[in-house]
C-alpha cells in the first residue's frame, strides 16, 4: 500500500535530492514514494483501467496505476501523461485545495517510466487532448505516489521508438535503430507498436490452435534435444549431454511423423526450432517458433494442403476480425496495404511459376530452385495477376527437395511438395512424405545419406504407416508479413541470430 | 487408390510368399496389396470412421480404413479385428459369393498392424461382440486391400501393452516393460491407453490457454538458447553456438519477468524447459514442458496465487467434462480414485504443514525444506483432513527459496512463495519476485551469486517495474498425477532423461 511521503521507507527514497517536504506543506500526506509493495496488505481500493476512463466517468474520483509517459511543468501546474499499455490519459497536478507547490514540484520531478498510483477526479476536457488515447477526459490529481521509480536516464525514448522512419528522415527527428531497441528490449516492448505486434502474434498462435482443434487435430509435444541430427547434420547445434553429446532439433518433423505412424492421424505442435545457419538476413533466425502440422490422408496429399491453407485463411480472417486495433496501431508507424487473400487459396504449379518468371524476363531452368529475388518478383507477378498476397506453389522439382519427399507419380522429375507464400516470401514448406520404408531407403541412398544415421527414422515406417503430409510454418515470418514489416527481429520478442544471444 | 490383386506394384508385394492367385479364383479382383498411395488420384470414395459403424448403418455397404488388430482363421472364415485409434470392429471374411478360399487365406495372412482398406456390409451382430468397441455390429467383408504392410514380427503386442499390471502378475500373462515401450514408442503410442493419455494431455494445454486467454493473458514466446545460465550455472546444458557457447534455458522466468517489466501485465507460455540434472526418479526429466504464468498484481501476491489456482481448477473441471472417455480408458489399465479438488482451492501455510507432519511423528525444523517422503505423507494427511488432492502450500521459509523470492514483510524468515501439489507431489513452484533492483542486489549478494552474471536480469527492473508474481507448472506431472499414473515417462511422448535420448 502506498504510504504517504515522509513515512516508512518512503523517506529515504525520494526521486531526486530535493529537500524533505516542508513542515508547513498542507499536502504532505498526499504525495511521496511508497514503500515497496511486498504484499503487506489486501486493501479494497479499486484501480481503474485507463482505457475505461471516459466521459461516462466524469466527476468520479478514481485511483489509477500507470507509468509516467511524459511530464511537463508550467508555473503552478504539472501535466503528466499516464500510460497503461497502449492507452494514455492526461493528468493535471495544479496548486490548489489538494496540491501544494511542493506536491506539484514532486510530480514534475518524477522520472519518466516510473510507475505511480494516482487519485484524481475525472474531468471532461475543454477540447480534445491530442496525443492521448483518452481524448475527452483528463484526470485532476489529488494524490500521487511513486510505486516503482525508473532511473533518470532512459536508454531510448518511447516517442522516438514509435516514430515512422520516413517522417524521422524528413524531419531530422530521432528514430531508434534496431540494435538499440533489441539491447533495451524491456523498454522497446513498451511502445504501442510493440504491444500491438506481440498481442497480434499471441492471436496468431491462438487462431492456429483453435482452428486445428476444431478440425480434430491433437496437440503434441516433441523433444528438442535429439540424439542424431535429423537431416544429415548440417546447420545443427550441438549440446553437451552428461558425458555424451546431442543435438537441438531442426524441426519436429520426425516426431510428427512418428505420431502419424502411431495413429494420432492429425497432429500439430507449436515450439522452438533451431537452425545453426550463419545467415544474417532480414528473415533468418537461429531460433524461431514453428507452427507445425502433420496429417494422414486418404488418397491425395491435396487433402492436407487444403487443410493447411484453410488454417492460414482462418488465421487471416480471425486477425482481421479480432485484432483490427492492433493492425491499425502498427500501421501508424509502418504503413502497409491490407493483407489480401482468396478463398479458396490460389494454388499454382511450379512450372506455371517458372513460366510467369520467364515471361517477365528471368532465365531459369525447369528444375532450378527459386532464388530470393525471384521469389519476391513472383509474389509481385501473382499479386498483379490474381490480386492475392497468399498463395501455394505446388509440385516442386524433386531435385530441390529433401530425400523424404514423395516423388510425383506422373512426372518423376516432380514431387508432391509445396511451399506457401505471404507477400512474396516463403512462410511454409511441406510435402507428402514417403511412408514406404523401401522407397525411403532408395531415396536416402540416392541423396548419399548415411543409412545408419537415419535407421530409427526409416524403422518408424516398418509397422504399417498411413500416407501422410504436412508442413511447418514460421511464426515470426507470418507476423512480419501479415503486418508488412521488414525484419523478423521486429516480430521475435528476444531474437537469436548468429550475432545476437542477448537479452 | 487400391488396385486389385495382380495389378501394378501389388503383384510384387504379397504379404508372404504364398502362390499367386489361381487363374480360377473368382474373387481375384477383390483383394491384394495396393500400390503405394502416391496421390495418383482423387476418388470420391468415402471412408467411414469405425466409431460411426453402429446399428443405424446396418445393411449399408461401407469402405473402412483401419489396422489389422488381430486375425483368426477358422475353417472357411477369417475373423479380423480392425482398429482405428481407440475404436475397433470385428470383420468377417467368409467363403461365399464375394470371397474365395484364396481371399480368406490372403486376409488371414495379413500381418498384424498392417493398414487395410475394406469394403463390407454392416450387419447387426447376433450377440454382443466382446473386446470390440463396436459391440452391436460386424463388417461382412467384400473387398480387402493392404495399404501399408507391417513387418511380421512386432517388437511388442498391443494387447500385452494395455494389460493391467496386477492382472498380468496374477495370471502370469505378459505385460510390457517400460524400456521396451519407449524403445518402440511408435507402437506403444497406438494403444488405447496411450491414445487416451496424450489426447487428455493435449486437452490440458488447451484448457490452460483457453482459461488464461479468457482472463486477459497474452501468450509469449521466450528463447531457449540463452547467453548466461540464469540461476547460477548448476544443472544447465551447454550448447555450442557458432564460435562461442551458450546454454539451454532452465525456465522462461527471466523472460516472463521482462515481459512484465515491458507492460504486458499478464503473460503465459508453453514450451520446453531443460534441466541437466542427473536425477533418475519417477518424476524427473531432463526436458519437460513448462506451463508458465507471470502476472503483475496490485497489492498482494495472493491475487496471482488465486488466478493460478483457479486456472488449475478450470483445467480439472474441463478434463472431467470433456475427457471422461479418456479418463475411463486409462483407468481400465491403471485403476485410480477420481481426482478431488475444492473450490476455492485449499491454501495452507508452511508452518501449518510442519505442524501436521510433527503431529504425525515427523521431526523437522521450521526452516527445513520438505523431503519427497514428507511431501507425500503431507499429501495423505491433507487428503484425510480436507478431502482434496489439490492444495497450495504458502509462505515457504526464505532460506529454501531462490534469491529473487520476495521476503515476507512480517516475518523475515518467511517468503512470499508457494508450491502447489497434486496427489501429494509438487506440480508448481512460484513466488512474488523481487521487483526492486536494490533489494534484488542485496539478496543475490546474500546468496553469494556473482552479480556480474545476473546484471542483465537486475537491470531489467531499473526502469520502473510493477510488483509481480508467477509460477511454472510441469505438464507431464499434471497429466501423470491427474490420471494417478506412477511415472512421468508415461506422460511424455518421447521422454528424455540422463539415460534416454531416443527415439
UniProtKB/TrEMBL annotation, chains A, B:
The name this protein goes by in its record: Aspartate--tRNA ligase, cytoplasmic
GO CC, one annotated term: cytosol
Keywords: Acetylation, Aminoacyl-tRNA synthetase, ATP-binding, Cytoplasm, Ligase, Nucleotide-binding, Phosphoprotein, Protein biosynthesis
GO biological process: aspartyl-tRNA aminoacylation
HAMAP family xref list: Asp_tRNA_synth_type2
Family: Belongs to the class-II aminoacyl-tRNA synthetase family. Type 2 subfamily.
Top enzyme class: ligase
Gene Ontology MF terms: aspartate-tRNA ligase activity; ATP binding; RNA binding
Quaternary assembly: Homodimer. Part of a multisubunit complex that groups tRNA ligases for Arg (RARS1), Asp (DARS1), Gln (QARS1), Ile (IARS1), Leu (LARS1), Lys (KARS1), Met (MARS1) the bifunctional ligase for Glu and Pro (EPRS1) and the auxiliary subunits AIMP1/p43, AIMP2/p38 and EEF1E1/p18.
Transmembrane segments: none
Residue ranges, annotated region (Disordered): 1-38
Keyword Ion transport: no
Organism field: Bambusicola thoracicus (Chinese bamboo-partridge)
Presence of keyword Cytoplasm: yes
EC number(s) recorded for this UniProt protein: 6.1.1.12
Catalysis performed (reactions): tRNA(Asp) + L-aspartate + ATP = L-aspartyl-tRNA(Asp) + AMP + diphosphate
PANTHER family, per the entry: ASPARTATE--TRNA LIGASE, CYTOPLASMIC (PTHR43450:SF1), ASPARTYL-TRNA SYNTHETASE (PTHR43450)
Domain Aminoacyl-transfer RNA synthetases class-II family profile residues, every copy: 200-503
Known role: Catalyzes the specific attachment of an amino acid to its cognate tRNA in a 2 step reaction: the amino acid (AA) is first activated by ATP to form AA-AMP and then transferred to the acceptor end of the tRNA.
Signal peptide: none
InterPro entries xref list: Aa-tRNA-synt_II, aa-tRNA-synth_II, aa-tRNA-synth_II/BPL/LPL, Asp-tRNA_synthase_2, Asp/Asn-tRNA-synth_IIb, NA-bd_OB-fold, NA-bd_OB_tRNA
Amino acid at each position: 500500500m502506498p504510504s504517504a511521503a515522509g513515512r516508512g521507507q518512503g523517506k529515504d527514497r525520494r526521486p531526486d535530492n530535493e529537500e524533505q517536504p516542508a513542515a508547513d506543506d498542507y499536502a504532505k500526506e498526499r504525495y511521496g514514494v511508497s514503500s515497496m509493495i511486498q504484499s503487506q496488505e489486501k486493501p479494497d481500493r479499486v484501480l481503474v483501467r485507463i482505457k475505461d476512463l471516459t466521459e461516462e466517468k466524469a466527476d468520479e474520483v478514481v485511483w489509477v496505476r500507470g507509468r509516467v509517459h511524459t511530464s511537463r511543468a508550467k508555473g503552478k501546474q504539472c501535466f503528466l501523461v499516464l500510460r497503461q499499455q497502449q492507452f494514455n490519459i492526461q493528468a493535471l497536478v495544479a496548486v490548489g485545495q489538494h496540491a501544494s507547490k511542493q506536491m506539484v514540484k514532486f510530480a514534475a520531478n518524477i522520472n519518466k517510466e516510473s510507475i505511480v498510483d494516482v487519485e484524481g477526479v475525472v474531468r471532461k476536457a475543454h477540447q480534445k487532448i491530442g496525443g492521448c488515447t483518452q481524448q475527452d477526459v483528463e484526470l485532476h490529481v489529488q494524490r500521487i505516489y511513486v510505486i516503482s521509480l525508473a532511473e533518470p536516464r532512459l536508454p531510448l525514448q518511447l516517442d522516438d521508438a514509435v516514430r515512422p522512419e520516413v517522417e524521422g528522415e524528413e524531419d531530422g527527428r530521432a528514430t531508434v535503430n534496431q540494435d538499440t531497441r533489441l539491447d533495451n528490449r524491456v523498454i522497446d516492448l513498451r511502445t504501442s507498436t510493440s504491444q500491438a505486434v506481440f498481442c497480434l502474434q499471441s492471436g496468431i498462435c491462438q487462431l492456429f490452435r483453435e482452428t486445428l482443434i476444431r478440425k480434430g487435430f491433437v496437440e503434441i509435444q516433441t523433444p528438442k534435444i535429439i540424439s542424431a541430427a535429423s537431416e544429415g547434420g548440417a546447420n545443427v547445434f550441438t549440446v553437451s549431454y552428461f558425458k555424451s553429446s546431442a543435438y537441438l532439433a531442426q524441426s519436429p518433423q520426425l516426431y510428427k511423423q512418428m505420431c502419424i505412424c502411431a495413429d494420432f492421424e492429425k497432429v500439430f505442435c507449436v515450439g522452438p526450432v533451431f537452425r545453426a545457419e550463419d545467415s544474417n538476413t532480414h528473415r533468418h533466425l537461429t531460433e524461431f517458433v514453428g507452427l507445425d502440422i502433420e496429417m494422414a490422408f486418404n488418397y491425395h496429399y491435396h487433402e492436407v494442403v487444403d487443410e493447411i491453407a484453410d488454417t492460414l485463411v482462418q488465421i487471416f480472417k480471425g486477425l482481421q476480425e479480432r485484432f483490427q486495433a492492433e493492425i491499425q496501431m502498427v500501421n501508424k508507424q509502418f504503413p502497409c496495404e491490407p493483407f489480401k487473400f482468396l478463398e479458396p487459396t490460389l494454388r499454382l504449379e511450379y512450372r506455371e511459376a517458372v513460366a510467369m518468371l520467364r515471361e517477365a524476363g528471368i532465365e531459369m531452368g525447369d528444375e532450378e530452385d527459386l532464388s530470393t529475388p525471384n521469389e519476391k518478383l513472383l509474389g509481385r507477378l501473382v499479386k498483379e495477376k490474381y490480386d492475392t498476397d497468399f498463395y501455394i506453389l505446388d509440385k516442386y522439382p524433386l531435385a530441390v527437395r529433401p530425400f523424404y519427399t514423395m516423388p510425383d507419380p506422373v512426372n518423376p522429375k516432380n514431387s508432391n511438395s509445396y511451399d506457401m507464400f505471404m507477400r512474396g516470401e516463403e512462410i511454409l514448406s511441406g510435402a507428402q512424405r514417403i511412408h514406404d520404408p523401401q522407397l525411403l531407403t532408395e531415396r536416402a541412398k540416392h541423396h548419399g545419406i548415411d543409412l545408419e544415421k537415419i535407421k530409427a527414422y526409416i524403422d518408424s515406417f516398418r509397422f504399417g504407416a498411413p500416407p501422410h503430409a504436412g508442413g511447418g510454418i514460421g511464426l515470426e515470418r507470418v507476423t512480419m508479413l501479415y503486418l508488412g514489416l521488414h525484419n523478423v527481429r521486429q516480430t521475435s520478442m528476444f531474437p537469436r541470430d548468429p550475432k545476437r544471444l542477448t537479452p
